[in-house]
Design goal:
The chain has 188 residues and is of the alpha+beta class. The protein contains 5 helices and 8 strands. The strands form 2 sheets. Strands 2-1-6-7-8 form a 5-stranded antiparallel β-sheet, with helices on one face. The longest helix has 14 residues.
Length: 188
């Protein structure tokens, strides 16, 4: 009997933002390693036994809430890759609350703190990553999005709406995800 897959909690992004990050991943990620769409992981490995409680807590936290604001705040060198750093006090607060709730069940990776980011390159030689960082950095104000009113680089308001009912995805296995059904709860 196969063991149940861990739950991975990711923040979903709006279509335009996802497309921009995915385009960068296609351009810079080694093709054999680019198995996922662009994503913002909030938890890497929660026990499958938390599924019902996690869905309940997420539904409570998101019911009637607007998507949290988030913005692209810079680039991060991963040594062997490049990521966009995401700033969102609201997402940090949500993640902190969940981390406190499930503290005794977190893996070392999830206990270590959270640096929100979207990886667009990984597992390449450090020299290749430095070139990519320089190229993306040189055009950073244009990548991936700019707020028309403030001129600030952003992931759109709807983009990183991790803990807003319509923007939460819990991935527990390759073809298993949960999406909320408006304010009434969740649907598999």
């Amino acid at each position: 009997m196969a063991e149940a897959a861990p739950i991975i909690v990711t923040a979903l992004m709006g279509k335009a933002d996802s497309a921009a990050f995915d385009a960068l991943r296609r351009r810079h990620f080694p093709p054999e390693r680019n198995q996922l769409a662009a994503h913002l992981t909030m938890f890497h490995h929660l026990p499958p036994s938390l599924e019902d409680e996690l869905k309940r807590r997420l539904a409570e936290m998101t019911r009637g809430a607007s998507p949290p604001e988030a913005r692209v705040a810079g680039l991060i060198s991963l040594g062997q890759g490049v990521a966009f750093r995401i700033e969102s006090p609201a997402l940090l607060a949500i993640r902190a609350e969940l981390a406190d709730t499930f503290a005794g069940l977190l893996t070392p990776q999830d206990r270590a703190g959270w640096r929100p980011h979207v990886t667009v390159q990984n597992k390449v030689e450090p020299a290749v990553a430095r070139v990519t960082l320089g190229r993306i950095g040189a055009r950073f104000p244009a990548a991936p999005a700019r707020d028309r009113r403030s001129g600030e680089l952003v992931v759109s308001r709807r983009a990183v709406g991790a803990i807003v009912a319509s923007h939460v995805r819990l991935t527990a296995a390759p073809h298993r995800s949960y999406r909320p059904r408006s304010d009434r709860g969740w649907a598999e």
